[in-house]
Amino acid sequence: IFFRKTYSKDILLLLISFLFPPGQTDGDSVNQTEGQVTLSEEAFLTINCTYSATGSPTLFWYVQYLGEGPQLLLKALRDKEKGSSKGFEATLDKTSRSFHLKKGSVQLSDSAVYYCALRDTVIGTHKLRVERGPGC
């Protein structure tokens, strides 16, 4: 998620990436909201994450701020377990196979790329391109 100021008001430019961690077996996969979303500062955020996995998976959300490596944001191991950090939260729902990331009021300081992952491995190269909006 990347936020920037455009015109006279704060606009939050959200960049959301896919993550399919290496080492997946038996059809394990993660499907994350893709594309770009624009929100105003203090808006409610939901980034969807669904998964397919054998066994009893652990789900993670990582955050990667510009110029830094990925950092663990939160995780959950058990069904209905809620992970929370920095105002973000996600509840692991093994029935719907989901682990959606939510925050009630996003801020400019939340600018980053967010990754949903199965297991504890995040590997990959992700390029970010942020373009100036009209009037910048």
Short recap of the structure:
This protein is an all-beta fold. Helices cover 0% and strands 42% of the residues. The chain has strands at residues 4-6, 9-16, 29-32, 35-40, 45-47, 49-52, 59-64, 71-76, 82-85, 88-91, 101-103, 113-118.
Can you describe this structure?
With 136 residues, this protein is an all-beta fold. The protein has a single domain (4-118), classed as Immunoglobulin-like. The chain contains no helices and twelve strands. It has strands spanning 4-6, 9-16, 29-32, 35-40, 45-47, 49-52, 59-64, 71-76, 82-85, 88-91, 101-103, 113-118. Strands 5-11-10-9 form a four-stranded antiparallel sheet, with no helix packed on it. It has a three-stranded antiparallel sheet with strand order 1-2-4, with no helix packed on it. It is globular. One of its GO terms (biological process) is adaptive immune response. Residues 1-27 form the signal peptide. One of its GO terms (cellular component) is T cell receptor complex.
